[in-house]
């Protein structure tokens, strides 16, 4: 089985089991199945974005080949998810027993809106019902996204945002270029003013920036700083090296597995692993068994 | 509920596990799901992925590398390999400059609840 199909099997198996189990538990018996469906959608979306799995629907695959269509598609998808979640909130606010019968019809809707999503991918405006009347589909996207509460937006847009804030940032850029020019000028004026007003000697200005290190600075100068400064630098760099040597925080390649046997002969370790997930060079690989030799240098 | 067997939570750190936990955490923070459902789904994920890996995956791999760090703590081996080389059955070779290996004990699928 390919990684792709194993991952999809895992997703569908988890979702299927959860759906069949939630009703048996008093803690979760009121959970609506639609939220489980949403979890599945979001989970698969994330995996697709990370390139761990390919997309199910060939239509979707072709639709995502061009950038603008992709953004239109995702916007509609996000709107569907948002509608579902919003109606979930409303239902949760009402009494739960009376609403359970009506939920199925209400929650079917987002899926039924999928056909317009396909039309949207043909290059027409993604929000057909939108009354904004903007010619530019990007503007429509922006207005839709901006209507979302920020918390929801973070849910709906696991993808890097490629449409929403562009307009603002464009404006900002124009403003910024002017402002930054002004700021530079102002900074220069202030610095000029200070240097003229106080007319520092270089020896006074350079060593004393903070006051507390007064003695140290004097010592450095007295002992003819060169050697001491090198030592200080090497101390600092030693600390940095230690942090670099601690490889735990940032290792992009990893293997998660179970060991059956780990043995050592002199400086060589032999390992028998099983049931592993490897993530190497951005690609996932699975193994049932793995044997390895590791040399301690 | 029926199956009280414990499964390793190790794989929650994998790509597919992170995709699920990120999704669930966002839903939890925004109160679309309860904490008990959150836990339930992750527990189910542990069970499913442990079984899927041992039952559906057949691939074999060999690897070698220079040991940079090793650690054996709480029955978990952690290795960090430099200049590691992984070879699949199809003789496909993948080289990475540094890789971290985390391995739980395969012989204790039922970790004692004492700790």
From TrEMBL, chain A:
Which ranges are annotated Low complexity under compositional bias?
61-70, 97-106, 121-155
Q: Which SUPFAM superfamilies match?
A: Transcription factor IIA (TFIIA), beta-barrel domain
Cellular localisation? Nucleus
**SMART domains annotated for this entry?**
TFIIA
Q: List, as start-end ranges, the regions of compositional bias called Acidic residues.
A: 165-176, 212-223, 233-245
Key words of the record: Nucleus, Transcription
Homology family: Belongs to the TFIIA subunit 1 family.
Instruction: Supply the name of the protein.
Output: Transcription initiation factor IIA subunit 1
Give the classification, highest ranks: Eukaryota, Amoebozoa, Evosea, Eumycetozoa, Dictyostelia
Automatic annotation (TrEMBL), chain B:
Gene3D superfamilies noted in UniProt: Transcription factor IIA (TFIIA), beta-barrel domain, Transcription factor IIA gamma subunit, alpha-helical domain
Domain of life, per UniProt, equals Eukaryota
Keywords assigned by UniProt, alphabetized:
Nucleus, Transcription, Transcription regulation
- Know the name of this protein? Transcription initiation factor IIA subunit 2
Cellular component (GO) terms are:
transcription factor TFIIA complex
Q: What SUPFAM superfamilies does UniProt report for this protein, alphabetically?
A: Transcription factor IIA (TFIIA), alpha-helical domain (SSF47396), Transcription factor IIA (TFIIA), beta-barrel domain (SSF50784)
Predominant localisation class: nucleus
